From TrEMBL:
Keywords assigned: FAD, Flavoprotein, Monooxygenase, NADP, Oxidoreductase
Family: Belongs to the lysine N(6)-hydroxylase/L-ornithine N(5)-oxygenase family.
Source taxonomy: Bacteria, Pseudomonadati, Pseudomonadota, Gammaproteobacteria, Pseudomonadales
InterPro entries (alphabetical): FAD/NAD-bd_sf, Lys/Orn_oxygenase
Entry annotated with the keyword Protein biosynthesis: no
GO BP annotations listed: intracellular iron ion homeostasis
Protein's name according to its UniProt entry: L-lysine 6-monooxygenase
Pathway stated in the Swiss-Prot or TrEMBL entry: Siderophore biosynthesis
Cofactor(s) essential for the protein: FAD
Origin: domain of life: Bacteria
Species in which this protein is naturally found: Pseudomonas syringae pv. delphinii
Compositional bias annotation for Basic and acidic residues: 16-25
Positions of region (Disordered): 1-44
MF-aspect GO terms: monooxygenase activity
Length: 545
């Protein structure tokens, strides 16, 4: 095929007329009508069909630093073999931007199609970070931005920590560790851009404390509205099935209560699951619940809040639950149960917290499974079962001030476990056992809050239908490479990535932490671009004879 550079000047000018560039501002605002009408043109030489790869004028490099790939039509002056009319129609119908009944990437309404280049399950912080990486690629005219990616979210919106969105709570990471800054400090989706847009840049600089949890949640919502072209909320995924053709898993079918969708590229951003100790499972309900349901359960009581509470756990969610309960009603008493000495501070030292740096992820991933587990056990104090200094101060001050007033609203039980629990007429009868002395005591409470944290499954339940094609490690869990891609086995053509579900393979930073979320999104986005590259590298060109 002759290249355009070798064609005569007049022919090059004709090619530029046939393949106009789409302006970058049209990419963002959806002004695509005239450009799309020019995609299929009939000339004296016959019909020419092309798929446009977005490279904005004046931009010479992709996000990754590679030179953009140029696609030229063959311009040898020979008769053209006619392209059937139905092929032209099919090409327009299968435009890579027009594959959703939701708003597409350009903001336009499009016919309903159930297939996408990729599907991301979950549109919490990890899913939004991935959407930001794709949107930044689109604005930089990177081919990654041309992919159709659908996001399915079970929640009604992107509210962050909705069940613990309490007054006086703040984030426990630096604001630079937002959705995009470690990946691209110039991105318009940074927390700094949010502050600028909201008119709070200078006031935040004078604040002298971390961003509040309410403000961080608002930041996530602000970003989600700008990248929400292909997102469905209130859409829980119920099942993922293999679609087998000619004996191979050709793609997967993602089922929801309303629809089903197919794709060959799946990103799982569904987050960790609440850890429920088995002894409580049969008793779960309105008066015994996990902190992941905290505010919903409290609101259901209305003004008739129970007066006797037990809170199990020593982490941030448990401490916040205790403080919230005693602030709601001065008549409330809380029994706080700890396996350890009580609430302890999270490891805040600079050197231990380097485990959240990118080079530590490389190091951790290079270790064997046994060494990884030892590393995880050592690093847990940087992220788990610890509270912030201000929370510790509030809790201890509560106990101290109550002793002055001659009352006790917070009872703490150190080195203790719940050895038995039963439902009673007035609530629950609970037996506590001291782990050292083995002495027991009985408590009667009206309600129980489980601050027992979260867990990542060896095999996420949503992937159970694909388990025969998933390679397993020595513990029976997923094998995950450095780019967060799940290893498959046998006749499987589907690509799967986990976005925030790979603590066992990538370390403590891959838990519920913002620390490396932006860089993880970049890794997955680049791997996704490579996986779908044939779509970009093989456009429909005219058939010349």
């Amino acid at each position: 095929m002759s290249g355009q550079r070798n064609a005569p000047g007049a022919v090059r000018r004709r090619a530029e007329h046939l393949f106009p560039r789409k302006p970058a501002d049209a990419l963002r605002t959806g002004r695509t009508g005239q450009w799309q009408r020019q995609r299929v043109r009939r000339t004296a030489a016959g019909p020419v069909i092309s798929r446009h790869v977005q490279h904005a004028a004046g931009r010479r490099q992709l996000r990754s630093g590679r030179m953009p790939k140029r696609i030229y039509a063959p311009l040898r002056p020979r008769p053209c073999r006619a392209v059937p009319r139905d092929l032209m129609t099919a090409h327009i119908k299968n435009n890579i931007y027009a594959n959703s009944k939701d708003r597409n990437f350009m903001g336009n309404s499009t016919p309903h199609s159930l297939h996408s280049d990729a599907i991301c399950i979950g549109f919490g912080p990890a899913g939004i970070a991935l959407a930001c990486a794709v949107e930044d690629a689109r604005e930089a005219s990177d081919p990654l931005g041309a992919l159709s990616i659908r996001y399915l979210e079970a929640a009604p919106d992107t509210q962050w920590h909705r069940e613990l969105l309490l007054a006086g709570t703040d984030i426990n990471h630096h604001v630079f560790r937002d959705l995009v800054t470690p990946r691209n400090p110039r991105s318009r989706f940074s927390f700094a851009m949010y502050l600028k847009d909201q008119g709070r840049m200078f006031d935040f600089g004078l604040l002298g404390r971390p961003a509040s949890r309410h403000e961080w949640s608002d930041y996530l919502g602000w970003v989600s509205l700008q990248v929400d072209g292909h997102t469905r909320f209130d859409t829980p995924v119920t099942e993922i099935d293999p679609v087998i053709r000619n004996g191979r898993v050709h793609e997967v079918r993602v089922r929801t209560p309303q629809d089903s969708f197919t794709t060959r590229n799946l990103v799982l951003s569904s987050g960790s699951a609440p850890r429920m100790p088995q002894m409580f499972e049969a008793l779960l309900g309105p008066t015994l619940f996990h902190t992941s349901q905290f505010l919903t359960r409290l609101q259901a009581f209305g003004k008739q809040l129970p007066k006797r509470w037990l809170v199990l756990g020593s982490g941030q969610s448990a401490s916040e639950s205790v403080l919230e309960l005693v602030s709601r009603d001065p008549a409330i008493e809380v029994h706080s149960v700890h396996r350890s000495a009580g609430f302890k501070l999270t490891q805040l030292g600079q050197f231990p917290n380097r485990v959240f740096a990118p080079d530590h992820v490389d190091y951790f991933h290079s270790l064997n499974p046994a060494a990884r587990q030892r590393f995880l056990d050592w690093s847990r104090s940087t992220n788990y079962a610890g509270i912030d200094p201000d929370e510790s101060q509030k809790l201890f001050s509560l106990i101290y001030e109550d002793s002055i007033a001659g009352r006790t609203r917070l009872h703490t039980y150190a080195y203790s476990v719940i050895s038995a629990i039963e439902h009673s007429a007035d609530g629950y009868r609970i037996e506590l056992t001291d782990t050292f002395s083995q002495r027991t005591r009985m408590l009667e409470v009206d309600a129980v809050v489980l601050g027992t944290g979260y867990q990542q499954y060896l095999i996420p339940p949503l992937l159970s239908g694909l388990q025969p094609w998933l390679a397993a490690d020595v513990d029976g869990g997923l094998l995950i490479d450095r780019d967060y891609q799940v290893a498959t086995q046998g006749a499987c053509d589907v690509n799967i990535w986990v976005n925030g579900l790979s603590e066992r393979s990538h370390g403590i930073s891959d838990s519920q932490s913002f620390s490396l979320m932006a860089l993880r999104a970049e890794r997955i986005a680049n791997a996704l671009e490579r996986a779908v590259e044939p779509v970009i590298d093989a456009p429909l060109l005219a058939q010349w004879t």
